[in-house]
Amino acid sequence: EYIARRLLRAASEDIGNADPRALSLTLQAWQCFERLGSPEGELALAQAVLYLAVAAKSNAAYMAYKQASVAVAKGGSEPVPEHLRNAPTKLLKAIGHGRAYQYDHDQPEGIAFSQSGFPASVGEQRYYQPVSRGLEIKIAEKLAWVRDRRAAALAGKPQ
């Protein structure tokens, strides 16, 4: 179990979004090991080891998590922005929860570009910095596109 746990951690911490399949493959290998036991289940763990060894590597998600954790530890927790607060009751709606919320799925491109997810006191932050390997290449392209669209929306330019 220790080896499987370490492999799962490596899939998340060391490979991350460069090859997100590594996480599910490793978890499935662990489940296979649990069901088959030793020695038969060891083959599944060996298969995961081989996959992890050659997978594209990125610790960008891990670093983003660490940076965000440090920011929260330094600044404390801030209130959730009013527009993102759940308003399941009339009272919560009356005091402004959920007011001006933009539902992503109602937007033409599926993202409410002018809506922030951060408290005003914190401002927009970028913790996740994808690397130029594996799937993170495409993720970086998508994030750049979103940032460009967000900047245009906040500047009042047509999208």
Could you name the CATH homologous superfamily of the largest domain?
Answer: DNA polymerase III clamp loader subunits, C-terminal domain
Q: What's the helix count?
A: 6
Q: What's the domain count?
A: 2
How widely separated are the two ends?
Answer: 51 Å
Strand content: under 5%
Low-confidence residue ranges: none
Query: Which architecture name of the largest domain does CATH use?
Result: Orthogonal Bundle
Oligomer: single chain
Number of strands: 0
Summarize the main sheet. Answer: none
Taking Cα atoms only, what radius of gyration do you get, to the nearest Å?
21 Å
Would you tell me which CATH topology of the largest domain applies? post-AAA+ oligomerization domain-like
What string gives the helices and strands in order? HHHHHH
pLDDT averaged over residues: 95
CATH class of the largest domain: Mainly Alpha
| Spatial shape | elongated
